[in-house]
Amino acid sequence: MLRRFIVIVVGLCFLDAVFTVVPDGLSRTRSAAAAGPPVRDDKSRALAFETGGSNPLGDWGGEPSGPSGTLFLDSAVVHGGRYSGRLERTTSSPSTFSSFAIVLPVDFVGDTLELRGWLKYDGVTGYAGLWQRQDGTADRLAFDNMAARKLTGTADWTEHRIALGLASGAKQIVVGALLVGAGRVWVDDLRLYVDGKPLSEVPVQERLQTAIDRDREFDAGSRVQLGTLTPVQVENLVTLGKVWGFLKYHHPTLIAGNRHWDYDLFRMLPGVIAAKDRAAAQRVLTAWVDSLGTPPPCKPCLEAPQNRAILPRLEWLSDRSRLGSDLGARLKTIHARRPNVEWQNYVGQVQMVGNPIFHNEAIYRRHKGADAGYRLLALYRFWNVIQYWFPYRDLLDEDWDGVLREFIPRIASTSTPDDYAATMMALIARVHDTHANLWSSLDIQPPRGTSIVPVDVRFVEGQAVVAGYAHDRLGPASGLKVGDVIQAVDGVAVDTLVARWRPMYAASNEASRLRDMGRNLTRGTPGTARLTVRREAATVTIEASRVPSDSLDSRRGWTHDLPGPTFRRLSADVAYLKLSTVATAEVPDYVRGMAGAKCLIIDIRNYPSAFMVFDLGQHLVDKPTEFARFTSGDLDNPGAFDFGSPVSLIPKAPYFEGGVAILVDEVSQSQAEYTAMAMRARPGSVVVGSTTSGADGNVSPLALPGGLRTMISGIGVFYPDRRPTQRIGIVPDVVARPTIAGIGAGRDEVLEAAIQRVLGRAMTKDEQEAARTPPKPGS
């Protein structure tokens, strides 16, 4: 079921910045008065890299570009025609990947969209691939970048294909090729097919204009003014936000997309703000509800959900103090007559998985934060997504209504784009979901700056410890040594900084919060950071130079596994497999390599590079074995979540006979946690390490006004007996953590603890040496 998870996550990690959707999040349609039949812009020459003109790459864009870019037009190595595209990277290239990208409108209908193209690659250390993404109004609806196929090393020209179901609501497609890591990739002769027919032969089908397309009243601004709010105004705005969100997901007029509900909010705000008391606001809202029309009687009506994992929070519909009798009665009627649907205008669900797709949430990129109405829209949009579509809503620490009440005056008082983004970041942090952050604006998270000391800082024994270097040359030159404890930055104690920054760090638990704070601890403006450091028994002050963040390897510190090959034998007794560099096609080799070992170490102190749950897990069980079950939302009953059937591992020979230890820690997140759940389902396996990130479940992106982006964990992930994992993480059977002394000595104390538990003995010197020193090629 969760095989689709890697597609979603890899898409977010590697290609979010390449291209975005139509700038204001609203599609533009061809004028009805335009002469002649619609004609598709022919991109066939561009897709074949036969460009020309003053711009060598023609219609192609991508990342990174510019003088130090990695995208080239090549006339020496081609598959057909005069040119190909070339991606070329070294270990010092900016970013972690490079990609070609071209944007095309969805001006056709069909069931399947296929991208075909030819790739040649040389010395690829990560992976190469074609990629295809389908975008809705603001979000990605479908994505594949061939990450699971693991095209690495060197290969001559070969045709590759990516086929995706054409997503409902897709308004544009982005296609191209990418290179992760170092190496060279050539791409040529790309072609698009709809249901097996070349795109050029598919008739142009113009999308009909909707009510949202036709309503342009507030494109230039909401015209809403928010100053210092009185308590009455705050309470009335709380009511407005709750009513607006309830109607959005329950009234058939809005479910069908027949009103521009964002702009209706702007029409309603002045009257609610001007209301002198609750009764006056209730009258304004009642008239607003009446303008939508009364839903037709239902025969039969949908029953209220019962005995669900989570039930909707709709008790407030009976709160006469807040709603009055007339407004409350109308809302109850709307709820009773809600339609039976498989799709809503503002929310759908991923097929075969169930996490929500917020497919028609406009991003309003031009409104960066100075517009009060758009800021309030962002608050209401996010608050109601959590209220109705967050599968872990029952785990929130605070009264969610109280959070809305608190943030209304905060969002009203912001005056700059940065203030607006910071307020939304603080709001998102209240959800306590490591997947949920303001991913578009991490630069406003404290400490701010574009430079950082080139070391990897990790919280160990409650203290900020230099655990490694982010650059082989610049790291040691900083004056810091592995094992140093940073006690203060520029005269401010680390404990003080942690307490000050905590509200701005969205995280499921303290382990993942400190993980992220450690990565940013020395960030700041270019120049020197004055660090107070404890080194062994002495306290010293070090003036360490901050270097530009983009000059460092951003992947360092994201894994705590062993350097070197993916699989190795540490001894005759111990087989070791790290998931950060696994490839699906190589699983048979891993299984053969572990034969005869008394202990298999599966290291998931990382994020898996390929989906290993079933391909590897099936060799660890000798009978069908349940390991997880999920909850997902109900489009008929927004706010309700129910359990699905358990997911199982089905055995496949050969079966590994030895003991199994799974290593985890704070970098184990999402798919890593799900994989750990599957591996520990093997009877007798043992999880060794420390608290994981506590954020599992396929992610659902959400666009917010002003070009902001966030996401949430979109489905609930539980053990078969319905024990939760969110915020708790994967609880180790054996708690083992690094120590400051162990880091300084270069030991892997978690690995040592795993071998001690499974084999009942300490690591031998030979095993320790094998763990520290990767084997030479061919050995």
Description of the molecule:
There is one protein chain. The chain has 779 residues and is of the alpha+beta class. The protein folds into four domains: 208 residues, Jelly Rolls (Sandwich), CATH 2.60.120; 217 residues, no CATH class; 108 residues, PDZ domain (Pdz3 Domain, Roll); 206 residues, 2-enoyl-CoA Hydratase, Chain A, domain 1 (Alpha-Beta Complex), CATH 3.90.226. Strands 1, 2, 3, 4, 5, 6, 7, 8, 9 and 10 form a ten-stranded antiparallel sheet that branches. β9 and β10 form a beta hairpin. α4 crosses α9, α4 crosses α10 and α9 packs parallel to α11. The longest helix is centred in the first third of the chain and has 20 residues. The radius of gyration is 27 Å and the shape is globular. The N terminus is likely disordered.
Instruction: Please work out how many helical segments DSSP would assign.
Output: 20
| Count of extended strands | 31
Distance between the termini: 39 Å
Number of domains: 4
Strand content: 15-25%
Query: Structural class given helices, strands, pairing?
Result: alpha+beta
Query: What is Rg?
Result: 27 Å
* Coarse morphology: globular
The residue ranges in which pLDDT falls below 50 over 5 or more consecutive positions are: 1-35
Helical fraction equals 25-40%
